[in-house]
Write a structure and sequence with these properties.
- It is built from five helices and 43 strands.
- The protein is mainly β and 761 residues long.
- The protein has a single domain (19-759), classed as Maltoporin, Chain A (Beta Barrel).
- The strands form eight sheets. The protein has a 24-stranded antiparallel β-sheet that branches. A five-stranded mixed β-sheet has the order 3-9-10-7-8.
- It is globular, with a radius of gyration of 26 Å.
């Protein structure tokens, strides 16, 4: 275990702020959420939840969930070579494309299962709800660590016409952003809204000594929504979202152990081969050759249809969703150019292509409230198709005239269906005491097929590029397939007691599960591809209060969660080949304390913050890849190491943030607006092998904004600074033999942002 970390002074100050009673001059705006499938105040529900309004996201310049991960304790999102790593309370999914997510994500009520979908920028949001802890009953399978619910803005019937244009410019890297929104109600029964955004980060913030600046991105987003309410009983909301996201280069650099190829900190790894379509083979006709250098391209189309119908005093709700997702990644893993640094021809390059389609339908009924008993119950069905194509190329110069070449490819296909039934009921034992009991039964079925090829050749100077793996000596030929199915019963029990009108305590017991499946990697031995479900059993004890005549809030929750049959992936060397182990090889425990609060001492100032203590360890993990330091003992079977007692990745002992927001009148027509957020994180491992060289050091990150705004809200002008402390923050890391790479968050960014509003504001 690490030695105890000293409590940061900034967070001590936050605790003092929360303890001050003060004299209320204003009231905090009530935060309304739908985390319980009903419209309720966040202070009234027995859930550990962080909520960010669209207005807050805009003022802070937050464009995706990655920006939120540094200011929300016990929550992180990091880029990786194979997948994104989403973690809540120290628990996340491993680095295999087949793994379901431990933290589920929903956009307008529709499940988004692929990890890369979390990096798609969001905009024109109404709010973002981040729920910690198992959420199986109301959010479904694969919510063992938590859930994220993103709600986009819309216009309802009767809303006045509104429009706004927002522009932003960042000078250091020449980045820009333009957002245009228009909406209103053309009739008494119809509300329409159209939102568009174009974002360009400009020059990349990673300096590549060979290729120049890397890491620049462009994104185009569009959303159209319609709300039709032909009667008091019926409401229909339809939304279509499109997102196109292009990243040029890699947001990664070599660290520490990197050898003589490049100096640490000089830049990203150098792409060894142009003309990817010629050098990286493919097993089937998939358009993966659109990228000719490191980078990625992502396209997402989502459609959702939400229908609410009043059946007497009950409400029937139907949520239909369709998602179409395409992702292409080109990665350089070797660190040298083809003819660079005395090692001509050295290459270790890979690509990844994913295509995913999903159709889902949820039907539920909600009883009226106010009686002795109320409930929510429903059914859910999901059908999906996944294709993953992963070509790679290894070129090793043995002499000036002799080169060893290995080409590989792996195509994974999966058809999956999922259905479940769920119910949650609340028994109001008295005016102050409630018992909430619920459960979800889920049945999922996956048909999978994996086709892997690996071809060796010795090149005496001739150029080979046959475009497929049909010829030559194949050292690995694997065609496998099968079916993985499972059913899970996931109960939940909550005891909730009101200590006063504005104060409540709760105790929550819950079980959750994450679906099993089959690994996608070509290095997984035959017969060891399938893994079982992962389960979680958790307990929470929470406290929520609102005081000072509504000017202050204080919340605290203590939690303990055990994870069994932990889904893990680990690579070891067996002879001359890398062998990947995938399966249910571990158990883990996470426990800790989360505290948050807000205080509005005056009508122009809001203070607040959140603090989290976390103890997250492996109880059992035989077979983890041994790191370079030898800090983990050898496993009993001699393959890999034993991580029992080690800290989980992305699990800092202490993390937190404090903020201050200001809206100060400067006369009758003008307001001073601004805010500052200071975030702190203890050190943590940034990779699954617990590599000490990839340990993220503790950091204190500062974000701030200041500007002026019209008192009638017609316009505003702000300067927004992100990571003003210029911290080097590693989103995730990856050991690659003789060296490591780290995927980095941006350095200091300062941009000017202006908004002009038309119509109703």
């Amino acid at each position: 275990m690490k030695e105890t970390t000293k409590f940061p002074k900034s967070l001590i100050a936050a605790a003092i702020v929360f303890a001050l009673p003060g004299t209320a001059m204003a009231q905090l705006e009530e935060v309304i959420v739908t985390a319980t499938k009903r419209v309720e105040s966040a202070q009234d529900i027995p859930v550990s939840i962080e909520v960010f309004s669209g207005e807050t996201l805009d003022s802070m310049g937050i464009g995706d969930l990655g920006d939120l991960s540094t200011i929300v304790p016990n929550f992180s999102i990091g880029d990786g070579v194979t997948t994104n790593l989403i973690t809540m309370r120290g628990m996340g999914s491993g680095e295999d494309r087949s793994f379901e997510q431990s933290v589920s994500m929903f956009v307008d009520g529709v499940y988004m299962p692929r990890s890369r979908q979390t990096r798609t920028p969001f905009f024109d949001a109404d709010r973002v709800e981040i729920l910690r802890g198992p959420q199986a009953v109301l959010f479904g399978l694969n919510s063992t660590a938590g859930a994220i619910s993103i709600h986009s803005a819309s216009n309802r019937p009767g809303d006045a016409f509104e429009a706004r244009v927002t522009g932003a410019y960042e000078s250091e890297y020449d980045g820009s952003m333009v957002t245009a929104i228009i909406g209103g109600s053309p009739s008494d029964t119809l509300g329409l809204r159209l939102s568009l955004q174009s974002r360009d980060t400009g020059d990349g913030y990673i300096d590549n000594p060979t290729l120049g600046d890397q890491g620049s991105s462009e994104s185009t987003l569009a959303r159209a929504s319609a709300v039709w309410e032909p009667s008091d009983k019926l409401s229909i909301t339809a939304k279509y979202n499109y997102a196109d996201y292009d990243l040029e280069g890699q947001m990664a650099e070599p660290v520490n152990r990197f050898s003589a190829f490049v100096e640490p900190g000089d830049g990203v790894l150098n792409w060894a081969n142009s003309g990817i379509g010629e050098n990286l083979p493919q097993l089937k006709d998939i358009s993966i050759s659109s990228l000719d250098k490191p980078g990625s391209k992502q396209q997402v189309s989502n459609f959702s249809l939400n229908v609410d119908y009043a059946l007497g005093e009950h409400t029937l709700t139907g949520v239909f969703g369709y998602s179409d997702y395409d992702y292409t990644l080109a990665t350089d893993l070797d660190g040298v150019a083809v003819a660079g640094l005395g090692l001509p021809g050295l290459a270790l390059d890979a690509m990844s292509y994913e295509e995913y389609q999903q159709t889902s339908l949820e039907l539920r009924i909600a009883s009226p409230t106010g009686g002795a008993f109320d409930y929510v119950a429903g059914i859910y069905y999901q059908d999906s198709e996944l294709t993953s194509d992963q070509p790679n190329l290894i070129v090793v110069p043995l002499s000036e005239t002799l080169t060893l070449k290995e080409r590989g490819n792996n195509v994974f296909n999966q058809d999956a269906t999922l259905w479940s039934v769920f119910a949650s009921g609340t028994w109001h034992v008295s005016d102050s005491f409630r018992v909430i009991a619920g459960a979800r039964y889920s049945d999922d079925d996956k048909d999978w097929q994996r086709n892997s090829r690996c071809q060796f050749s010795f090149d005496l100077g001739a150029n080979w590029s046959d475009g497929n793996l049909g010829g030559g000596a194949c050292t690995i030929t694997s065609d496998q397939g099968g079916n993985v199915s499972a059913d899970n019963f996931m109960p939940e029990l909550v005891l909730q007691y009101d200590m006063g009108e504005d104060t409540m305590v709760y105790a929550k017991f819950s079980d959750s599960a994450k679906s099993g499946g089959a690994g996608t990697g070509s290095s997984i031995p035959d017969g060891q591809v399938v893994y079982d479900d992962e389960t979680a059993s958790g307990f929470e004890l929470g406290f929520k209060t609102r005081f000072a005549d509504g000017a202050a809030e204080f919340n605290a929750v203590a939690f303990y969660t055990e994870f069994d049959d932990l889904q893990v992936k680990s690579s070891t060397v067996n002879g001359t080949r890398v062998v990947t182990k995938i399966g249910n090889a571990g158990e883990a425990t996470t426990q800790g304390l989360e505290i948050d609060g807000r205080w509005m001492p005056s009508d122009w100032l809001t203070l607040g913050g959140a603090i989290a203590w976390l103890d997250a360890e492996y109880d059992e993990f035989q077979g983890i890849s041994c790191n370079s330091s030898g800090s983990t003992p050898a496993a009993a079977d001699g393959l890999g190491c034993d991580a029992a007692g080690q800290q989980l990745p992305f699990a800092p002992d202490l993390s937190g943030s404090v903020f201050a927001n200001v809206v100060l009148p400067l006369g009758s027509n003008l307001n001073l607006i601004g805010g500052i957020t200071v975030s702190y994180s203890d050190d943590y491992f940034s990779d699954g092998t617990l590599e000490p060289d990839l340990m993220q050091d503790s950091y204190t990150k500062v974000d701030a904004n200041i500007g002026i705004a019209a008192a009638n809200n017609q316009w505003d002008l702000s300067v927004i600074g992100k990571n003003l402390s210029d911290e080097k923050i590693n989103m995730s890391g990856q050991p690659l033999g003789a060296y490591d790479i780290a995927y980095l968050m941006p350095p200091t960014l300062v941009m000017v942002q202006a908004t002009w509003r038309f119509g109703s504001f």
